[in-house]
Each structure stands twice: as structure tokens, then as C-alpha cells.
Amino acid sequence: MTEGKKKKKTTKRSGAAPKRKTTRRKASMLRSGDEDAGSTLATLPQLKKTKGRTAEFLQTLEKARGKKLLIAIKGYPDPDNISCSMALQWIAAKYDIQSMIVHFEKISHHENRALVKKLDVDLEEYSNTLGVEDFDYLAINDSQSDQLPVELPEHMETLIFVDHHKSLGTIQSKFLDIREDAGSNASIYCEYLKHPALGFTGETQIETKIATALMHGIRSDTDNFTNAMPIDYKASEFLAEYVDRELLSLISRQSIPGKTMDMMQVALQRKDIRGTFMFAGVGYVREEDRDGIGQCADYMLHREGIDTVVMFGIVGNAYVDGSLRTNSHIVDPDKWLKEVFGKDEMDRYYGGGRKDKGGFQIPLGVFAKCSDKELLWILVKKTIDELFYDKIGVEETPALDD
Q: Which of 14, 291, 304, 311 lies at a CB distance of 3.0 to 4.6 Å from 109, suitable for a disulfide?
């Protein structure tokens, strides 16, 4: 089957074929007939003779052989979930499962854009015209919940759910693998790739790209192995033989955008220090610069005497976006942010996190229509400040220094 024919087949739509947003123009389906798919798979009866989560993972895919899988990246695409999606797509192709990777938020972080570009990763930005009605299953990686920001066809069941955050206990999936003892989701996928049935040797170009992406995902999510767990070290040892070191270095050494540097200056001017806590509102932020909020929080955490930093701003005039970073032995970002902001009407938490970092997003709703942007910012900042001050026991809100 030629490349042209494959592309035509995998992008089939009902009716007219409207334009859709995409990070690449190539088709994002992989089939078992591709060059790298191989033919070394164990049969289902053979797999049933083996035990463990990896065997169960492969058995689940075997039962879905020949179906179509939608791999959804929740939240802003980052190295961990991008690399896991790449790995899952490659594995799924071994079972003649056609797959497509979709994301719902912009790829805004400069390092993530570099990852997608340098590795030539196939990602599709979701839109109503994408045409996902004929997909049979859904897969979600690196997320605490299986709730998506859009409604998908009711017949589409969750086939694969793999995560390394605290379980919320509400996930419905045919295969479920949640490991809180993993510093990154990519490390879990490395365990899957080790199974001899998959024949992952790192000898093909796509396998080298997957190994490089997974290594970058581990490095990124463990803060350069500062928060790595045993599974992360084992995974990096497995990948070390296959990664493209020059490419990995290039991806990891992207320069800091000028807008992020400007944001850091604003954060320094508006900082509010309360004991070992630092809070700062950076005002209005463009959608493409929202990752700068987290980078500012990372930078501010280096200040002497500070062990917890919270940065926030209004992104795209649509929602409040914030990042928390901590070195504290007391502050649990996930629990802390969930207690501060609670849930929405759909029973979804506005915030969450893991061991040393977290984030929150709060839609402005009807207040986004306010024409007085300065007044709106004052209202947002005052509300957010009071929530945090109440949480840490501060009685009075300090005078605004911005």
C-alpha cells in the first residue's frame, strides 16, 4: 500500500472534507503493514500464559486488534504525554490498530514545540470537523481523570488509561495502570516496550525517535532526575542505548522566549512574600505564552527563604491559569490546590498536581466580557489572593505593589 493511499484512507470523512488544524500535514495513522510494524507478536493464548501489567496491557490490545484508537492528550501537551502517545501509537500498530493522536490545548511551551518539530511528531489539534465518529476506542495517558473537554461518541469506550498521579478512583477503562511510585508516565511505557513480543530494538528511525522522546519525557517530569524513582532510573538505563543524544540535547536546550523573561520581571516587581510562601499575579498573558507562568514559578523557587511559589495570570482573556512549585515537606500540591479551589459543576477539580508542582485553571465565564480590563484584573487578583491567604492563615491582604 502506498503512502498516498494510506493517507487517503486514514483521513476519510463523511461529506465534504473541511480544513482542520494540525501540527503536520501527514496522516497520523499507523498500521501494522508499515515498515516498522514487524511481525514478532505473541498470540493471545501465549500472552495469557504470562502475568503482570505488561502482559495485561498487550492482551487488551490484542483483543482490540483491527479496531481504531483515538489517543487523547489532555491538558497542554508536554514531553511526558507526547512521548507516551508516540509509544502507544507504535505499539498499537503492532496489533493492526489504527490510531490518531489528538490534543485539545495549544502546544505553547517552546521546548514542547521543539520536541514536536524536531521529532516530526504526528499530532492533530481537535476540532468539530476532525471526524472521530468512526473510532472504536479511546486512550488517555498522564491524567488523573478520564473526562475530556469535549463530548465524544457514546460508543467510544476507554481502552487504555495509564497515569502516575494520585488516583481519583473514578476511572473506567478496559486496561488501567496507575502507579504513584513512578516519577514519569514515560517510565511505565518503557516497561511495556521491554516485552519481547514487541521486538523494540531501537534500530529503526521511528524507534530511535520514540526512545529519544521518552528519555526527554522522563528528564522533564522528574526535574532532571531530582524527583526520579527506581522505575525512572531503570527506564533511562533501558533507553540509553537507543536515544539520539545530539537530538536530545538540541530539544533540551531551547532558549527562553523574550515574553517569558518579561513575565519574570513583572513577577519580581509584584511578588508578595508571606513567610516561606511567595505569590505573584503577572496580569494578562497571551495564550501562546501561558507556559511562561510555570517557568516563572520554577525560577522564583530559587530565592533564599522561599519553599513554595504560586504564580498566576489571566490567559487569553478567558481563564485564570496558575502554577505552584514547592520544596516544602508539608505542602502537597495536589491536595493543597484542590482544597483551595474545589470543584466545578461537573465535579471536576480546578486544580491538582503531584509531589513538587501543581497547577490550576479557572474559567472567567461571563466576566470575560468585562470591558474594564484593569478592574477585572484587580477583582481576579484580590479573589485569588484571599483564597491563598485564607489557606495559609493570613488575616489581612497586603497592599498591592503593582
A: 291
**Residue 401 to residues 163, 259, 271, 299, 372: CA-CA distances in angstroms?**
41, 21, 8, 20, 20
Residue ranges covered by each domain of the chain: 3-252, 258-392
- Same CATH topology for 3-252 and 258-392: the answer is no
**Residue spans of beta strands (DSSP E) within 57-156:** 68-73, 98-103, 124-125, 137-141
CATH code of the domain made up of 258-392: 3.10.310.40
What is the per-residue pLDDT across 202-220, written as a single tens digit (0 to 9) for each?
A: 999 999 999 999 999 999 8
| Cα 12 to Cα 68: distance, rounded to the nearest angstrom | 13
* Coil/strand/helix, residue 119: coil
Query: What distances in angstroms separate CA 177 from CA 149, 167, 182, one per listed residue?
Result: 22, 10, 11
Give the span between the Cα atoms of 24 and 359, in whole angstroms. Answer: 29
* Cα angle 39-173-22, degrees, rounded to a multiple of 5: 70
C-alpha–C-alpha distance, residues 383 and 180, integer Å: 33
Contact 385, 397 (CB under 8 A): yes
DSSP string, 185-216: HHHHHHHHHTSTTT---S-SHHHHHHHHHHHH
Nearest to 363 by CA among 300, 292, 315, 309: 315
Which one, of 312, 305, 306, lies nearest residue 280 by Cα? 312
Q: Per-residue confidence at 45, pLDDT binned at 50, 70, 90? A: low
pTM of the predicted model over 0.70: no
Q: State the DSSP H helix or E strand holding residue 315, giving kind and residue range, or none if neither.
A: strand 308-315
SS3 24: coil
Q: What is the pLDDT of residues 312-339, one digit of tens each?
A: 999 988 999 999 999 998 999 999 999 9
- Residues 390, 401: Cα–Cα separation, whole Å: 20
Whether the CB-CB separation of 254 and 375 falls below 8 Å is answered with: no
3-252 maps to CATH 1.25.40.80: no
> Reduced to 3 states, what is the DSSP secondary structure of residue 308?
strand
